[in-house]
Design the sequence.
């Protein structure tokens, strides 16, 4: 099956700890994206990558970091510098980077800080 | 700059009645517009998209949307609601830069039996 997988589905973190969320795609897409979703709000862009070994900050990058060493993988690290990390995190990928291309989403990871 | 506004945060309909979810957009160029659906604790699924072809766009599960440039609207409709349509719906506009998207706040659709 082609698609996007995110793991784990649920993640609990103690304050002060870094945690890494996994995102893998087997769609052979060039571009990948990380979003944060809070209750009653739309999605906000954290980071995106249009090509391997390159990525750009989105609208709310502070307290997060990413890497793109392989085309199919785009892990997100939530660092201790992120003041309010409890949220639902969604990864997406897209074949190209034009305005008419479609983003496909993974099932999400719910992060809770204890 | 681009923006999108979903006019209703919550819509409730009875099963078998029509659905209307309203979306207005702002864009300095001809936009690409999308509707996505999200069921609880799930990822987003594309319902339909408009990319400057036909103004009436048909999507999955009987949904359709009409692009009206004069009204800057892209409302989502369905003739007859089903219980399985209960979900959160997002209207989205493309930023035309790196494939980035701008999401509306979402409309929660409830379907009563």
Sequence:
């Amino acid at each position: 099956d082609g698609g996007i997988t995110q793991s784990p589905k649920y993640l609990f973190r103690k304050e002060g700890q870094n945690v890494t969320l996994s995102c893998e795609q087997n769609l052979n897409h060039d571009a990948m994206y990380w979003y944060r979703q809070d209750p009653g709000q739309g999605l906000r862009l954290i980071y995106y990558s249009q090509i391997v070994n390159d990525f750009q900050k989105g609208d709310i990058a502070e307290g997060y970091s990413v890497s793109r060493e392989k085309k199919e993988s785009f892990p997100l690290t939530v660092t201790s510098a992120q003041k309010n990390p409890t949220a639902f995190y969604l990864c997406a990928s897209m074949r190209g980077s034009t305005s008419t291309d479609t983003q496909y989403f993974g099932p999400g990871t719910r992060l809770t800080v204890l | 700059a681009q923006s999108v506004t979903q006019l209703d945060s919550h819509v409730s309909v009875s099963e078998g009645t029509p659905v209307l979810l309203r979306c207005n957009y702002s864009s300095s160029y001809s936009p690409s517009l999308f509707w996505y659906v999200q069921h609880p604790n799930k990822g987003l699924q594309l319902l339909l998209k408009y990319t400057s072809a036909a103004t009436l766009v048909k999507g999955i599960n009987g949904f359709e949307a009409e692009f009206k440039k004069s009204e800057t609207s892209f409302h989502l409709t369905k003739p007859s609601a089903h219980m399985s349509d209960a979900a959160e719906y997002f209207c989205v506009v493309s930023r035309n830069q790196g494939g980035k998207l701008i999401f509306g706040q979402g409309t929660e659709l409830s379907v009563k039996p």
